[in-house]
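One thing: can you check what follows?
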Amino acid sequence: MIDAPREIAESADPSLRQFLVVKKFAPAPLQNAPGKWMVAAPDTTSQFSAVGYFFGRRLRKELGRPVGFINTTWGGTKVEAWTSVEALDKDADLRQGKEWAIAQRVAFDRYTPAYQAWQKKYGREDHAVLKPETFAAPGILTDDWKKVNLPAELSSAGLPTAGAVWIRRDIVLDPKLENHAASLFLGDARDIIQVYWNGKKIAESDVTTLDHRYNIPARSRKRAPASWPCGSSTHPRVWESRRATRAFATATTRT
């Protein structure tokens, strides 16, 4: 969005609200959806749908009355996931896709325990040999680390396709967003993820997790030292780590 920091800073409006629905799977429409209402304000608007915010703001001005909208967006989902089974069955192509998706889900549910049993039987469980701080701690030397461009296959970057792979990245945040909500999105990863921010573990998920989006606690952010070579006073450092059988995401944010 163009000029997002200014829009967010000037967004205070007690008559404009959003109900943010918690992401949750369900085989049928729900009568009640978990979520929370939030009033448009500099510390909340970053969590609004951008389209919903501007549409709601325009409606409120034109109608001259309070406006609230429901945000059920889920990035990366297919339209079929929002379509009823009855509607899918009316179209041959959609019905075929539905049956394929169900078969994949059943196969995955069988695969997970079978894979874990295989690991245990042949002594292939994934055990950490070093402490996370070895890779996640702020300020460690990375001169011997290999630079990679993501997204990409690990093999194309000359990295092993199995085992633990740590990926670190420096990120610079706008100082104006220092007190705003922040999140880390790792995309469509099919791994076990552990997220570290400024050397502190803040989240973990397994291979069944589809939406790898993690909230970054404000207490985890630190102001960057003056010696950092950047024109901004906010220097978040994000270390993501992924692994084919287990993934660690490490992040260091400096605000």
